[in-house]
Hints:
By secondary structure, the protein is of the alpha/beta class.
Amino acid sequence: MSETVPQPTTGYTPGGTVRLTVAQATVEFLAHQYSERDGERQKLFAGCFGIFGHGNVAGIGQALLQMEEVALDAGEEPGLPYVLARNEQSMVHTSVAYAKQKDRLQTWACTASVGPGSTNMLTSAALATINRIPVLLLASGTFSTRRSSPVLQELEAPYAGDVTVNDAFRPLSAFFDRVTRPEQLPSALMSAMRVLTDPAATGAVTLALPQDVQAEAFDWPVEMFEDRTWHVAVPRAEVSRITAATELIKAAKRPMIVAGGGVHYSVAEEALASFTEATGIPVGETQAGKGSLLHGHPRLMGAVGSTGTTAANAMAAQADLVIGIGTRWSDFTTASRTAFQNDGVRFVNINVAQIDAVKQAGLTVLADAKEALTDLQAALAGWSVEDAYLTEQAEAWAAWDAAVEASYHPSAEVTDALAPGLLTQGNVLGMVNELTDPRDVVLCAAGSMPGDLHKQWRVRERKAYHVEYGYSCMGYELPASLGIRLADESRDVFAMLGDGGYLMMPTELVTAVQERIKVIIVLVQNHGFHSIGSLSEELGSQRFGTKYRFRGDAGRLDGEKLPIDLAENARSLGATVLEVSSPDEFAKAVREAKEMPADGPVVIHVQTDPLVYAPDSESWWDVPVSQTSELESTKDAYQRYLEHQAKQRQFVAPAG
Ligand SMILES: Cc1ncc(C[n+]2csc(CCOP(=O)(O)OP(=O)(O)O)c2C)c(N)n1
Ligand SMILES: [Mg+2]
């Protein structure tokens, strides 16, 4: 309680006031926030990641220190434990992965210093918002008073006096506020919590906190720091929407479901399994929705779209009604609007977010996935697709599954053609799949592996597949593996990481060492970009600039492979490294990694041939090709491009 303040500036407060800095009040407030859904309550913030510099070292930093000292001296856990990260972009990735693994009910706060410290978080802010994953960014700002302006790292915009580098967060944030006076803090914090816990609006929430304001003291109403529980909504659909959707489904001959991330976030997997068992409707899955049905479920057709299975894509091509559940209909899901070719195809969208629910001109069912599926199943009681459609599904899946089996276990003809020490990527994925526990989590974000995993990975347990493909951000994997492990220490995490992704951001290995976090990184060395290399070739650009090689005598980047030793690099950062050069050694390394004590990161270094591809999707992804060119390869690619483009459809017909 404050004894010294003559008149409270916030007006009457029944419980009195407490004098704290803006930073201390922020940290104290965050430590008392909870989320609750379906009666289950948990802390909203597991802790705070950060890197200190001017702007937060004496503001939020002092507040976190004070909280840690008081708690540890009392033999307690700090309300908001602090973890030092190595790169601000990474620490947000770690937080996002944690939140995704926790079905968006828990996350972390991230504090960064003025200028580059804060703007380093821009990339991951975009990633969080695009994937609709909650994370709180405490970006530090230059003086609100401008007393010492321009300070180190301050932007001086000639066109406006109130712009700072943190304004760059505005378009990337689900909510943005700048606290220039202590009085603004309560409403800023309340709005931040509202958005973080709103399943339709969530994403990166940015609070810009100028360095002087962080250190300013104020008399806060004590009620501000009481435990507060934010209810996460589980909305049911309007009856009229369920009725309309039911009529469309009953009229369909070849309905199909596209399951997106919303199925997982609403924990609707069992409801989906029950719905499809009752109706016989097959399921294609987006990257975020993969694992909605587990491998072996008779209605699972696997991945749909550009990186889809031939089974799901065959169903999609002829579907007359597509029920999207918790999907944002990205171009990879729709194969750039070529996946659905039935003339009369219509869409039904079950989604909590209006922005997604209206896409493809679909019938809008604004609802939580589990609630809507339960209501729809009741309304459809007694109805199912025809038996011939079930047989077709079984045959399509069997053909695809056999192709995956062949990729997991390449024939002698394939392996004999490999250079010594190289494996195929399908073989690597297959061994990780077959030698890990069903509960272990596989993780990826960019390169060729997200597509290969989407097509081929067999998901055997809920939350065991984690591919970030909204932003597909190189560098996500390593920091994200820490977040997943922190979210669930009972599972091993296998991060599938390309050499390009590793070189982009290997530094969180050091944080894993510091915090003794066991993550297993499968580092796939193929000396460059397998993914963009093959895309480049397909588009007529001849793999230009996609190989990690010396510049050759003729001036091209086509010399010898660069003599970089990523295994030694990982070792130097403190990881335990297992180097393998044969399938048997790889299998042994996976088993060994699993058996290692849970006290730090393990890296398995394996080399693969980037020219052996996963089974073909028979699908397309729209990447524009030059309309005019001196190169034959580009001219050919442009002709192929036009053929595909002719199949693109704009879905604008009303759903019914
Ligand atoms: C931050 C970022 N920069 C660029 C890209 C474009 N990109 C996608 S995959 C890729 C190459 C990835 O290389 P690597 O990690 O070695 O995986 P590989 O393709 O060899 O499987 C690039 C440059 C991206 N997704 N993210
Ligand atoms: Mg590579």
